[in-house]
Amino acid sequence: WFSFDRTDEYQLCNFILEFKALMFISIGFVCLAIGAVQSHLCLTLSPHEHYCRSIGPGASPTFYWEISWFVVQAANVWVAFLYLPFSNNRAGGVVPRSTKG
């Protein structure tokens, strides 16, 4: 977030797209798998008792910390999105090289 030019339209769009793709994989698929395993374990660990309050999804002591970081990540993308109207298109000044000898 700190290493790119926020006035360049391409870099802002690239940041938004790459960050959302990474969030889809890391938060989407990985958290889906972890939550499914935790839910399965809390329901099937004992036939007489359910342990969902202690080992179920959302029962981790770091749950609120993880949710707050998710909000920070989403806010980063929205800030980059709000920078877009104030950015400059710098691709128009680039002249492509000729491929003919």
Automatic annotation (TrEMBL):
Positions of transmembrane segments: 21-41, 63-84
Give the UniProt keywords, A-Z: Membrane, Transmembrane, Transmembrane helix
Q: Which PANTHER family match?
A: C2 CALCIUM-DEPENDENT MEMBRANE TARGETING, RGS DOMAIN-CONTAINING PROTEIN
Protein name as annotated: Uncharacterized protein
Originating organism: Chrysotila carterae (Marine alga)
Q: What is the lineage of its organism?
A: Eukaryota, Haptista, Haptophyta, Prymnesiophyceae, Isochrysidales
